[in-house]
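Minutes, methods subgroup
Present: GH (chair), OT, SY

1. OT presented the first of two proteins processed in the latest run. Sequence and structure tokens recorded below as shown on screen.
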Amino acid sequence: MTHIDDKVIELARTAIGFEFGGERFYRHVAELTQNPTGKAMFLRLAAAETEHVAETHVLFAALIGEDEWQRLADQEATIAQPSKTIAELQAAVAQRGHEVVADDTQALRLAMEMERRAIQVYQEIAEHTTDREMLGLIGKIIQEEGFHYDSLQAQLDSVQNVGLWLDTPEFRMDAKY
């Protein structure tokens, strides 16, 4: 049973904003980033956000109804400016003094923040339904967003030339290994 209330509609609006706005955000950060590999990665993430729109359509059409989904999607698609969350992330780029050229680490951190927020929204949406099929779809979306977050974290580690902590020693100090 799905509980349709103002909270679910607001969560749907936020999630739709992430998917439509996320694509714009990643394209914007790709323009600001000077590194060609970074640009390509951000453009891949922009394409992935576009693909998520179809998944959110299935999800929210089931949760809030096809008509309400279409109304929210049409509203978001016609907005020239990004959603509130995406606007906040873009303002953070400007505030940090990177209007012309985004520092790669800042761009990655902002992208990670967007993915983290999206994961939280989808987790909250999952609390409003008991439908197994919808919970499965939400789980898939959360997993994809988590993969994006992990990929961004790996890129950040690489850019910062920092590795991950190892849980087992890779060598011995006595040179026997």
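2. SY then presented the second protein from the same run.
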Amino acid sequence: MQHNVRYSAARTVAGLAAAAALSFASLADAQTGAQSPAPTAQPLSQAAPPVDPSFSAYSLAQTCKQKNDNVAHGQCVGAIRGIIHGYQYGVLFLGQRASLPANETQRVSLCLRNTPVSSIVDEFVGDAGQVNEESLKHTPAEVAVLGSVHMHHSCN
């Protein structure tokens, strides 16, 4: 699991900055029938890789729900911290290496100062509970976690 977490967190760096919040919001909108504004990001030219069922949004949400199981709790916290740290390092790296439009780094950054991981876990589990299980099984855990965090802790 830990290898999957590191590898999965590293994969989030390229391309999830704008897509994370949009993907999870689209799933939630599909549940409620609401309309999302059109995404501003260009679609990727290659097809998305298949979702690893052992690290889907569904499997991570199930793990995170097991609050009384110390092993599951550790795996949940480790996965969420890895995803967030990988994403934040990716934003920092892109901000230093690429010429981004004004305020773009702030738009995709997370404002998590003094935010306990337990509240991020609770928000993710609550948000995942609003999406049907089948959709969660086809959503990468990284996308769902980052979408949830962006909904609750964006810097805008």
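Chair's summary of item 2: Residues 1-42 have pLDDT under 50 and may be disordered.
Next meeting: continue with the remaining queue.
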